[in-house]
Amino acid sequence: MNDLDQAKVNAFSEKMLDILNGSMLSLTIGIGYQTGLFEVMANLPPSTSEQIAVVAELKERYVREWLAAMVVGQIIDYDPTTNTYSLSAEHASVLTKVAGPNNMARLTLVIPFLASVQKAIVNHFHKGGGVSYSAYPDFMNLWAEINADRFDATITQKILPLIPDVVEKMRQGVDILDIGCGDGHVLNLMAKAFPNSRFTGYDFLENGINAAREKAQSLGLTNVNLEVQDLTTFNEPNKYALITAFDVIHDMAQPAKVLKLIADSLQPDGTFLMVDLAASSHLHENLDNPLGSWLYTTSCMHCMTVSLGQNGAGLGAMWGEQKALKMLNEAGFINVDIQQIPEDIFNNYYIAKT
Ligand SMILES: C[S@@+](CC[C@H](N)C(=O)[O-])C[C@H]1O[C@@H](n2cnc3c(N)ncnc32)[C@H](O)[C@@H]1O
After folding, report:
1. Residue at which a domain ends, from 65, 99, 133
2. Distance, CA 230 to ligand 1 centroid (Å)?
3. Which of 64, 99, 134 represents a domain boundary (last residue)?
4. What is the DSSP string of 242-279?
5. In whole numbers, what is the pLDDT of the chain averaged over residues?
6. Separation of 93 CA from ligand 1 center, angstroms?
7. What local confidence, expressed as pLDDT, does residue 130 receive?
8. What is the pLDDT of residue 1?
9. 180 C-alpha vs ligand 1 centroid, how far in Å?
10. Please, which pLDDT band fits residue 100 given cuts at 50, 70 and 90?
11. How far apart, in Å, are the Cα atoms of 120 and each of 300, 305, 312, 343?
């Protein structure tokens, strides 16, 4: 112990203090999101805790304690001479709905949702296997909500135009499959935009398919077919002009098999659009990834474990570009173009053809 570099110990202790304070703040920021306090404060001049509580329709004592955490966390400004609190326009632009899918207050909710499976994950470190999808309803709903916001603003405007020949075909009328469609949000968006085309959505979780059907019905869509289907067993050779996978492949138990089935199910000139996390397959190349710790933790506590829970490959969310390209090639995708869009800080858009 005498040989310790004390400066290094001190620096690391400070880093750990930052982590502990930041983790606690993420919980109170999540409360600010769920109570609507950030939205309220974004529209108020500097105000007392009583004034804020009245407008937010919340109990003042709770609001005051929350404000204190926000002030010492340097998220909200405090003027002791007037006893008033204010949220700057700059901070509001990151923490309120004006930030759209990148609202960082909403992203903090991932932390308590994943924390709810922490004990189970520790257990799986010892005995192997993994947590099942059914353990995370809140996490999956939140992620679906975030994806929905992202794709509302981008699917027809930015994402599909990355593959211009497909857009033209979709206007005329073709078959499209969305695999692991979840609650069907993006599938329904596409079906509404391209009424001449026929859209199929498969997912093995019944809740998602039921929600997707309800949405399709409420939108009056007649060109959508949604089925509970395990994607390791579907078999529809040469059927689809476009197959999409939004945030799905790295979660799967048998991704190599599913990629091969996708390649077989495309028409000869069809396209596979795989939306998956932008990362390197090499750990040392992810050191500067601004979301690195966040993504590896989400992978360990969700994406990897749900796959291992089905005796799967456990690819993990950070399988990365190199491995993705290798697996796409092995499945028969010879031409793969990787694109990104500025509205999406998480994903690569792999445009793959056989
Ligand atoms: C992270 S969610 C993404 C959902 C949706 N695409 C979205 O963007 O919101 C992954 C989805 O893949 C589905 N999934 C995973 N493995 C599957 C399989 N073998 N067969 C069918 N669906 C599967 C899960 O049920 C889940 O709905």
Report:
1. 99
2. 10
3. 99
4. EEEEES-GGG-SSHHHHHHHHHHHEEEEEEEEEEEE--
5. 95
6. 31
7. 97
8. 59
9. 3
10. confident
11. 12, 10, 18, 34
How close is the Cα of 240 to the center of ligand 1, in Å? Answer: 19
Q: Do the domain assignments include residue 279? A: yes
Among candidates 341, 223, 216, 328, which has minimal Cα distance to 266? 328
Q: Residue 194: CB partners within 8 Å, gap ≥ 6?
A: 170, 171, 176, 223
The residue contributing the CA closest to ligand 1 atom 10 is: 248
Whichever domain contains 274, its CATH number is 3.40.50.150
Domain match, 339 and 210 both: yes
Same domain membership, residue 214 and residue 160: yes
- For 231-264, the pLDDT digits (tens) are 999 889 999 999 999 999 999 999 999 999 999 9
Q: What is the DSSP letter of 342?
A: T
Domain carrying residue 140: 115-353
32 and 132, same domain (yes or no): no
> Which mutation among 203, 308, 347 tests ligand 1's pocket best, with the greatest number of atoms within 8 A of CB?
203
| pLDDT tens by residue, 271-302 | 999 999 999 999 999 999 999 999 999 999 99
Angle at 29 between CA 27 and CA 33, to 5 degrees: 115
Q: Which amino acid residue places its CA nearest to atom 22 of ligand 1? A: 203
How many C-beta atoms lie closer than 10 Å to residue 206's C-beta? 9
Is the pTM higher than 0.85? The answer reads yes
- Residue 212 Cα to ligand 1 middle (Å): 13
User: What value does the mean pLDDT take over residues 3-27?
Assistant: 97
- Ligand 1 binding residues, C-beta < 6 A: 133, 143-144, 147, 180-182, 202-205, 208, 230-232, 246-248, 251-252
Number of domains in the chain: 2
Query: Which residue CA neighbors atom 11 of ligand 1 most closely?
Result: 180
If one counts every other C-beta atom within 10 angstroms of the C-beta of residue 109, the result is 22
How much of the chain, in percent, has pLDDT values that exceed 90?
91
Check residue 143 and give its pLDDT: 87
Q: Which atom of ligand 1 is nearest to the CA of 148?
A: 9
Task: Give mean pLDDT, residues 93-120.
Answer: 94
